[in-house]
Specification:
Blueprint (H helix, E strand, L loop, with lengths): L4 E3 L2 E3 L5 E6 L2 H6 L1 E7 L6 E6 L5 E3 L7 E6 L4 E6 L8 E10 L2 E4 L3 E5 L2
Parallel strand pairs: 2-11
Antiparallel strand pairs: 1-3, 3-8, 4-5, 4-9, 5-6, 7-8, 9-10, 9-11
């Protein structure tokens, strides 16, 4: 079983920044597609950003120009740098890893609340 552990969430004022981290086994971080999803109350889980094993990055429109996804192979960690946060960014953020079509893993999530 692959264990993904998110951290870095919290309460931040509008316009502020947070950096989320996802710790994972090294083989997962270096060799597979990973992503950040989020789920706000009453809404479906949605993709925020995805990074493929080859380094191709895709952002949701809501994340473009504000969020940056990255990986640190030495630390076996994926990150999501979030800047210019808005109240509508409030959600539980989940780390996701896709080994293949039959092996997909989720973390337990970290709460991000943007409020004054």
């Amino acid at each position: 079983q692959v264990r993904l552990v998110e951290s870095g969430g919290g309460l931040v004022q509008p316009g502020g920044s947070l950096r989320l981290s996802c710790a994972a086994p090294g083989s997962i971080v270096s060799s597979n597609t990973m992503a950040w999803y989020r789920q706000a109350p009453g809404k479906q889980r949605e993709l925020v950003a995805r990074i493929s094993s080859g380094g191709r990055i895709v952002y949701a429109d809501s994340a473009k120009d504000r969020f940056t996804i990255s990986r640190d192979y030495a630390k076996n960690t994926m990150y999501l740098q979030m800047n210019a946060l808005k109240p509508e960014d409030t959600a539980v953020y989940y780390c996701y890893a896709e080994v293949n079509a039959y092996n997909r893993y989720w973390g337990l999530g970290t709460q991000v609340t943007v409020s004054s």
